[in-house]
């Protein structure tokens, strides 16, 4: 439970971070909150030779309205997102989901950019960002570029980022008072979801739906979205939630049960989003 | 006013809750200056033949002082199995040699000594170990076939067998017979403090070993035996210990290894394991496959009950091998059943060794009996509380011997059940359940009832005796030396209360010491809920005897009749009766001559605490998730010395029992690879999964010790596990479900409902 030896570089600006990434190449990893990276380093599942610590980069920590969108700095901690009045007013799904990540320690250390870059299929916030149709802004040696989040998560712990790039910002539409629901199914309150479903009414009138832990990456429930666009009922649409997914079987749940949960949680999230029912409390409150 | 029975706040907690407590890995003892760090290289294969161990690269790694493989062990002999009746072929090597077999993931293959701890992990990775895999034996069913035998020289995986099969006509006179295979799953003890040991040899040829353990004296004897040392040469110290739950009973081989390594290296050596290492290396618990059969008449009378146990002992059989005999002894539980049959077979498997775990054999008996009662009740359509009441042993104050051979001291099981049902509002709960069922709610109510009796203070290798030494010092303070071994229980507070009660010396002036074999050569440690009824009783007895010594001494000094003197609480000493403040203080009495008493208390017999629990769950029948909403318990442990501490024991026990019922299970894949070796994968229960407990008081003093105290350390676990399991089953019983194995995960509940709806009764 001791990581292999590594070099440690602490930077204070994005430019410094990009320069450090260029200098150290593909063996370097960005360290932000560290709550995903450090455990796998302790288990020696990850053995980066250089850690570039961006936790002191002030310019990456913000939540602000920018035109039709809310722009969130990649270094924003989950706790900051949870408490952000801008986020609560403009895109309330996100602060709610942030409040459901791990435990207080994780929420005070973990960052939005970190959880997106880590690309764990069971992550809460990437699921919400996917439902929202977010844009991921990355910066590298040749400057900034924007990647639609639907094209960002490529595979198990694999993203569309090129070598030398880091995430600097996440942009999401201002959903305002539009309905949303997040149904997270766990064994214990602080656990990773066995399955989670996010549903949100978007400004263009469509409904975004995404699932956690139903495959190698967080997934759009495309069949559900399409059925809703066609005007089918929530019950009918939710029945399609497991279509196109490839859930794993592990000691917490097998694929069949995960598929069942995907349908059930999608139905519940959609009903909450449409104001038909209140949030499911069996999973969200302590007994 | 007596201090006993009052809520004295734990004097040890300020240290435990800050940085003040000193656990083994925190030691800064000068004897450990310059200590080397041991890092074990463990098998990553559950079963296989070692074909190569190459430590050459590791030996050249930075900071490496030495690497030991099986070739470097000199005349160190394998550790024999810890029970005399076990086949010597089950001996465990210190390091598995080339050509030898590894028997579980975590088996020791090599050990690295480094200057710094981090260097050890780097170097350990560089030791090349090749293992030719053999089929893994996972679970007792696979072990019983003997298709793959772990120890060819033994010839079978069967480790031990107890009891005979039931006669064929055992259930012949029963109108109804229900039988079911159930699982009491393998669980991790997971104490906060993982295993750790340090050792330093002195110039006098003695070794001091510090380790985290539940009984220094027992560990001292074992380690000396394994290393071929005179026990007098081994000074064993257990500093502050952060939990054990039974898994720190007896020494582990690593502890002795650290001492041997220190001797070889000529320098002190330290070892502290990681959590992942702990989750495969430390003794685990339960691991019984059971078949229960219960028979009786439709009026609710149970006439015959059979419990057949297959015990998974893990790779190298240890104390877990004999725990099924406790399960068998307690098979009849709280019931007056004319015929009770119990039988057990124990098997070696390619898993971590099984040891004692909070309750150790008794929870398995209660869980089986309570499942059987529920199944019988469901079969005849009777309320589970009524079935229990109909079959309870009638209230008794003289010893009662059950059909499974246990002699209980006293009990009133119906009274315990009535109290808990009343506190729970049982009738209203059933009414609410009926309403929800009628409405077809998504959230259904489940009510589980359990009644239990357990054995505490049984002979765990030290008879039913414990020692105490009590000394009053010239400054008016006192010291208690105890053979018990607190690891969270609060003996420093309670033992001081017991001495204070007799002497009048305030608790804060009484120091309690434990776990040092030089100062306390004999002691039974802390296990089996024995400490208060034996160790506490010994402190009480020492204090009573010390007052007598003091009375004689004071009589001479005061030129008074000893019979006229009494303890003077106001004056902290002795005074002539009726004239407080006129006598002599403890400090004066101890000024010129040592004032000390050493005593041994021996209980006549073990005690049998009992109780009843009600669990209420809400189950989301669409997802299968059950949430515990209420836990109401009666846990009768006799006279309570400190209610605060007794409640703490109940709280922890109840919570741990819920963990087994709903969440916890050590899992292996088909190759014997552990699937639950981190806390991300192994879900022990947390506060967010628990309601506030509703504790109902009941105290029936035992005559077996002068305190009237019975054990309370394990009772909560024994009662809550079956109550919660039963509640989950009950929440979906109207959908056709009769049984769900533990842990009753949401997937299992969902699947049980689905299968039942398909028409096959579950």
From TrEMBL, chain A:
PANTHER family attached to this UniProt entry: XANTHINE DEHYDROGENASE SUBUNIT C-RELATED
GO molecular function, one term: oxidoreductase activity
SUPFAM superfamilies in the cross-refs: CO dehydrogenase flavoprotein C-terminal domain-like (SSF55447), FAD-binding/transporter-associated domain-like (SSF56176)
Pfam families per the UniProt record, alphabetical: CO_deh_flav_C (PF03450), FAD_binding_5 (PF00941)
Protein name (Swiss-Prot/TrEMBL): Carbon-monoxide dehydrogenase medium subunit
FAD-binding PCMH-type domain mapped to chain residues: 1-177
Keywords for this protein: FAD, Flavoprotein, Oxidoreductase
TrEMBL record, chain B:
A GO term, aspect molecular function: iron ion binding
Keyword Oxidoreductase appears in the UniProt entry: yes
Position of the signal peptide: none
Keyword Oxidoreductase: yes
SMART domains: Ald_Xan_dh_C (SM01008)
Keyword entries, A-Z: Molybdenum, Oxidoreductase
Domain Aldehyde oxidase/xanthine dehydrogenase a/b hammerhead: start-end pairs: 19-135
PANTHER family, alphabetized: ALDEHYDE OXIDASE 1-RELATED, XANTHINE DEHYDROGENASE
Protein name: Carbon-monoxide dehydrogenase large subunit
Organism of provenance: Klenkia marina
